[in-house]
Amino acid sequence: QVQLVESGGGLVQAGGSLRLSCAASGRTFNSYAMGWFRQAPGKEREFVAAIVWIGGNTDYLDSVKGRFTISRDYVMNTVSLQMNSLKPEDTAVYYCAATKPQVKNLRLGATYDYWGQGTQVTVSP
Fold first, then answer.
1. Distance (Å, rounded) from C-alpha 50 to C-alpha 4?
2. Inter-CA distances, 109 with 34, 60, 62, 75, 98, Å
3. How many CB atoms lie within 10 A of CB 87?
4. Whose C-alpha in 16, 28, 104, 118 is 20 to 30 A from the C-alpha of 97?
5. Quick check: 25 and 42 in contact, CB under 8 A?
């Protein structure tokens, strides 16, 4: 069993930065691939970023490439999302999620087994 708790959301002006963190508990966390998703009001949940366990390869939504960075701390059992140059269209509830290491399609939310409760990110113009 894995439990995920996000933190770090808030209100920021366009062009600003926020760092989201996801604290995980559960003895098998370090073998899981981790992802960040977001859901804006009236829109479907969308993939933002993911990081695998072996090798640390990452993947990003095209619109956040070069602005967001996903990373993980294997000692502290956390995964972070550094968000720079934020835009109003980044406003959403952000969720971290965990899935088994053998999962191939990390962009698909349905493949994730565990989800956090979400943290609100609001970017003002």
1. 15
2. 11, 14, 17, 26, 10
3. 14
4. 16
5. no
Tens of pLDDT along 53-77? 777 899 999 999 999 999 998 888 8
Q: Which residues contact 45 (CB under 8 A, 6 or more apart)?
A: 37, 38, 39, 95, 109
The one-character DSSP state at 91 is: -
Question: What mean pLDDT comes out for the span 78-101?
Answer: 96
Q: How far apart are CA 32 and CA 122, in angstroms?
A: 29
d(CA 111, CA 31) in angstroms, rounded, equals 15
For 112, half-sphere exposure in the C-beta direction (CA atoms, 13 angstrom radius) is: 26
**According to the 3-state scheme, what is the secondary structure of 30-77?**
HHCEEEEEEECCCCCCEEEEEECCCCCCEEECHHHCCCEEEEEECCCC
Q: Which of 96, 121, 86 has the alpha carbon at shortest distance from 6?
A: 96
